[in-house]
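Record type: ASSEMBLY
Status: queued
Input:
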Amino acid sequence: MTRSALALAACLLAGSALAQTAPLPVPRRGAVAPAPVDPAVIALQDRAAHDDTAYAIVTGLTTQVGPRPDGSAAEGRARDWAVEQLKALGFANVHIEPYDVPTWQRGNESAAVVAPNPLPLHVAGLGNSAPTPPEGLTLPVAWFASFNDLLLAPPGSLTGRIAFVSNAMAPTQDGSSYGSEGRARFMGPSEAARRGAAAIVIRSIGTDHSRAPHTGVTDFAPGVTPIPAAALSVSDAENLERLVKLGKPVTLHLVLDDHQIGPRPSGNVVAEIPGTHPAAGVILIGGHLDCWDLGTGAIDDGAGIAITTAAARLLMGGGPHRRTIRVVWFGDEETGGFGGQAYAKAHAREPHALAAESDLGADRVWRFGTQFPESAAPLIPRLTAALERIGVVHGSKLVDGGTDVEPMLALGVSGIDLNQSALRYFDWHHTSEDTLDRIDPDQLRQNVAAWATALAILADAPEALIPAKP
Amino acid sequence: MTRSALALAACLLAGSALAQTAPLPVPRRGAVAPAPVDPAVIALQDRAAHDDTAYAIVTGLTTQVGPRPDGSAAEGRARDWAVEQLKALGFANVHIEPYDVPTWQRGNESAAVVAPNPLPLHVAGLGNSAPTPPEGLTLPVAWFASFNDLLLAPPGSLTGRIAFVSNAMAPTQDGSSYGSEGRARFMGPSEAARRGAAAIVIRSIGTDHSRAPHTGVTDFAPGVTPIPAAALSVSDAENLERLVKLGKPVTLHLVLDDHQIGPRPSGNVVAEIPGTHPAAGVILIGGHLDCWDLGTGAIDDGAGIAITTAAARLLMGGGPHRRTIRVVWFGDEETGGFGGQAYAKAHAREPHALAAESDLGADRVWRFGTQFPESAAPLIPRLTAALERIGVVHGSKLVDGGTDVEPMLALGVSGIDLNQSALRYFDWHHTSEDTLDRIDPDQLRQNVAAWATALAILADAPEALIPAKP
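Status: finished
Output:
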């Protein structure tokens, strides 16, 4: 997952503005008779509990494709692989919808303390980072314990220095600490540049204590000239912070051979289970096919495309459904959300009953939230009763959606969030450690069961999911 | 820790031949009155439970020195830092005992699958690896599920191929799986070279599932020309094994710019708490100051020098002891045990009451074993009763000693093992992840308490620890 800084802050800290029209779920007090659960849904949940389609998809993707950064040849191979897989799984109308994406490319990168004592550091450039000169920068460090402290630095105060921002991120089940602590990555480089810094290194936005740096995109504000910007691993950042606190001036050497290389081809891969009632609207689900170059994109977001695809496939067995289920493996999500924007541009005029994505790993779904019109309110108790069977509670939170479906949600399309536990996700997010090893097959199957449950209820619901025109 | 392949196999699989003269501990059946524990020892254990000297040592070493591979300038800085620390801690006779060490140096390294699909792999050369040509090797893979399978390959069968040996290592509390599975590293490259392989990659000898490869020394047998030899991370090795099992021929590209650079200065750092009875013999304890270049040497073996030094320092408060306690921060351990050999060469003629080392991380001591002459047999129940108070059991296993003190044990010197739990140790051993983050301060303090307990009992014991001349 990624997000632009402002959209993320708005979404996670204040609740999505897009969702303000959705009804708040009614808190239930005392014993209320639950909605009955359709035996077909129960049977589907049982099948999901033994279905290995999702694990096979993410295994194939991480083994036979591997890293697939935006605009790369590998991303192209991923699309071809995707078409082959989706056809083999029985989907209809499988095709690629191409578009171009502005592409940033990582080169050689290194960092080291050179004074008061030499110490090599593990580092990864942030997406959109400027390059250092080829010989690197060797400059004193200006340390800030947090992004907020950086904001307090006066203009010009960082000239001739490398800013070092070291706020730590604590694990949260809903991932909200990514929004607050992540500002050091989303906005830190732009704010350091405004204050004259020659470069910036941040403590990785991650909840681990490893040597694997967490990359991710950073956004330079309009008018701000990009500077070299990188993340140190949490372990290296803590070591650097200890050195700084010993009181002697600390000098860093930083090399980032990272460049913007212009537009390159990307694309969304689209597949369908055609429905019987086109006017009831398309159910759009999916995840993103691209990933950062450091890992193999298992939890971000091989899991998301695997979960939504496996869930949709489970529905193929039940005869035709009212609504078309459209599975999209979005292209660029990580560097700007161009995949979701391209989808919206191409499909905004089609009636959509729902837009939802899975993009927070493969740990169990623990909560769901909805953004439905009043006409679909009766669906909520049905979803609640069915999802409770597999350990998912109905939260009071409005939907966040996600980068891929945000442009559709912004048009007023209904949404559902199936929130995964993020307690481990940010240990590995955007690192070399985002590999198949991080996926627990049992929890992955619970995800498939949750999505299959929601799809089964939504695909055939007689209630209108498309808001009435005002 | 490291060991030469044969010494290790002999020690761990069959029990150390050096220890065959030691008395087996008597299994206790039924309720036997325990030996009383000296109140001074209890007070010492309580002080150890709140002592942060060990954590301060390993923090300083990993922050202010960092990686310190054998024969490097950084190892020299580590010795200077060590002298400063040991003097500041109040030790006497602090000095460096220099010697030269044959030095192997890592350069640029990379590996990737090039067919049937591109896939970058995380790799680290093994100590003593030969270099590849500068442009690397691009050759088909010959896969062996285990070292034993490699041994079954006929001579010449690997010509023009890169051998890939992928046996997995399960965690064991006593670390014995390192001895059995580690043969792929200790001897695999030599055996692959004998069979004509152009190079070898092995699955890291580690119990993790990360991207961090485990380096370590490999030994080419006399007459065998070294070949390029490297370890893939466990995660990458599993990915490569999955690719191989898909059935298409797999081609690897491997670059190892690793070289033997000849003899370089190394040295042991020696410090003492002088005793009152020189004839009672020196108690030699310590760990090793060198470490592999990938991490910062926290668990291997900053912890060992920190634990033994902090324990000795706790004894300073109790007035003079009968025996001199000599703490040695050994130089080269990882690439050939030259530090321990240099010590034995210089000190073999001095009377030694005991030689013991700490070199298996910083997790809790769970067991102890002794190699004592009959004259010191009464010490065993005293040690047992005192160590049981902090959760350490008396094992039936004879002592292993370790690479640093092995040359002294081979001369018949008494020994004690304070076995640490190795259940997590091999997750990070010899990787970039061997950093301060891996040390649990509580468990580290329990180690200090265990060593302080043993030292307090042994330093003043009236029993003879030096075996009588036959």
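Annotation: Chain A is about 30% helix and 20% strand.
Annotation: Residues 3-24 of chain A have pLDDT under 50 and may be disordered.
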